[in-house]
């Protein structure tokens, strides 16, 4: 079969893609950013499309000759890079029309707990998409996974691993919220069955194991799975958690899509619960959380990831503050002293002024660039290059500064190494 997978390189989409390829299907992958996707899945026929802007004609062309389309794409919260109504509702409406025109079967990945009456933007737009699909004349199946557990981690599951690996204690909000899980490979197996023409269409199915696990238990089990010593769970008040959530909401305008945003906390407060019997209608018997974890033993990479995940924003914030303060100080309070330092090494005063002012401007620019997701990588590379330039220039103009007790040159080296560390963990998925 020829199957189009929308969002084929995401957490769920990548497992769906791998399963469909293993089953011998020809897979057409659709997404916005395809450079890394092409490297990861060279066997996939990749096509670029943006859910927010792709027209009915665009989708009709993409679905031409396809037996089924699987929509794994979605968004958590409105922001500069995401529009819930555009992604969850308007795009689905256009895909449905394209399916009607081409006779393509639609398998739509929604979320457990979606039901009429949801007032929150995430739940309301998800429900609107399901209603549009149900009212259509196409062959369709809606799958609603619970908390998806996979060897890979992204978004909420990455956050859970990071919290589970927190030193000395495990911070949690809504620690008693009930959560039902499903393994990523089981979601992929459900899709593999749902795309088959003999599977009855017109079904909306939850994909969850029957066990309802309190969030606190999930965190302690994840900590044990990672291989860390037990630690108590600290149940934080929701009002306290709202502070970092608002900060995460603001950072979204700089391109950082943190799972700590307000919508994630709101969804968690509602719990993650569904009908465990639905999976049996597809002939699936889902694994419990313990069985899922046992089937994917962790290694040192899981410990590294869990410990580094919360360190990443701290590293980036530290670099931003370091270069911003350094640049502002160089342009203001220490400007004259810096110029005098260079002129004492027989550098002409106009050239010394240009170096000091130019260096300060570059430092501030790098701080602002590293704060934005789209330019962060360029800024980190710039920080390393500028540091090498500082050290080289200092060695030529004032080599004695290497032996200065305050270490103005030596102290630049850790900043460059920190930028290297940030580069190593910058990828989101």
UniProtKB/TrEMBL annotation:
Matches recorded under InterPro entries: ComplexI_NDUFA9_subunit (IPR051207), DoxX-like (IPR025695), NAD(P)-bd_dom (IPR016040), NAD(P)-bd_dom_sf (IPR036291)
User: Looking at the record's lineage, which domain of life comes first?
Assistant: Bacteria
Where is each NAD(P)-binding domain found?
7-149
The cross-references to SUPFAM superfamilies, in alphabetical order and at most eight, read:
NAD(P)-binding Rossmann-fold domains
Query: Mind telling me which residue stretches traverse the membrane in this protein?
Result: 313-331, 351-371, 378-397, 409-426
Q: Which UniProt keywords apply?
A: Membrane, Transmembrane, Transmembrane helix
The question of whether Transmembrane is a record keyword is answered with yes
Checking Pfam families in the record gives: DoxX_3, NAD_binding_10
- The protein here is known as SDR family oxidoreductase
Organism of origin is: Caulobacter hibisci
């Amino acid at each position: 079969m020829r199957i189009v997978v929308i969002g084929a390189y995401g957490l769920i989409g990548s497992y769906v893609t791998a399963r469909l390829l293993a089953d011998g299907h020809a897979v057409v992958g659709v997404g916005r950013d395809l450079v890394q996707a092409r490297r990861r899945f060279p066997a996939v026929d990749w096509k670029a499309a943006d859910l927010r802007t792709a027209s009915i004609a665009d989708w009709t062309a993409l679905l031409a000759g396809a037996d089924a389309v699987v929509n794994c794409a979605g968004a958590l919260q409105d922001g500069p890079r995401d529009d819930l109504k555009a992604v969850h509702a308007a795009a689905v409406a256009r895909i449905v029309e394209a399916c009607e025109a081409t006779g393509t079967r639609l398998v739509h990945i929604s979320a457990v707990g979606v039901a009429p009456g949801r007032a929150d933007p995430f739940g309301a737009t998800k429900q609107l998409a399901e209603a549009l699909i149900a009212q259509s004349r196409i062959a369709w199946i809606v799958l609603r996974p619970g908390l998806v557990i996979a060897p890979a981690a992204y978004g909420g599951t990455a956050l859970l691993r990071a919290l589970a690996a927190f030193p000395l204690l495990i911070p949690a909000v809504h620690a008693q919220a009930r959560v039902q899980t499903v393994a990523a490979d089981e979601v992929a197996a459900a899709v593999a069955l749902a795309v088959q023409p003999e599977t009855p269409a017109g079904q909306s199915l939850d994909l969850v194991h029957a066990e309802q696990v309190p969030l606190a238990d999930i965190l302690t089990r994840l900590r044990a799975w990672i291989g860390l010593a037990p630690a108590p769970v600290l149940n934080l008040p929701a009002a306290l958690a709202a502070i970092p959530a608002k900060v995460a909401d603001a950072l979204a305008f700089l391109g950082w899509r943190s799972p700590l945003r307000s919508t994630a906390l709101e969804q968690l407060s509602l719990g993650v619960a569904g009908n465990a019997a639905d999976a049996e209608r597809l002939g699936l018997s889902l694994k419990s959380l313990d069985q899922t974890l046992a089937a994917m033993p962790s290694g040192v990479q899981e410990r590294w990831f869990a410990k580094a995940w919360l360190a990443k924003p701290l590293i980036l914030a530290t670099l931003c503050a370091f270069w911003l303060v350094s640049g502002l100080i160089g342009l203001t309070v220490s400007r004259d002293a810096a110029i005098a330092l260079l002129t004492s090494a027989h550098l002409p005063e106009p050239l010394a002024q240009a170096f000091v002012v130019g260096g300060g401007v570059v430092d501030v620019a790098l701080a602002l660039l590293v704060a934005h997701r789209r330019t962060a990588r360029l800024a980190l590379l710039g920080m390393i290059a500028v540091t090498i330039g500082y050290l080289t220039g200092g060695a030529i103009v004032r080599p004695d500064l290497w032996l200065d007790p305050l270490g103005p040159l030596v102290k630049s080296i850790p900043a460059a190494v920190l930028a290297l560390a940030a580069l190593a963990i910058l990828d989101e998925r």
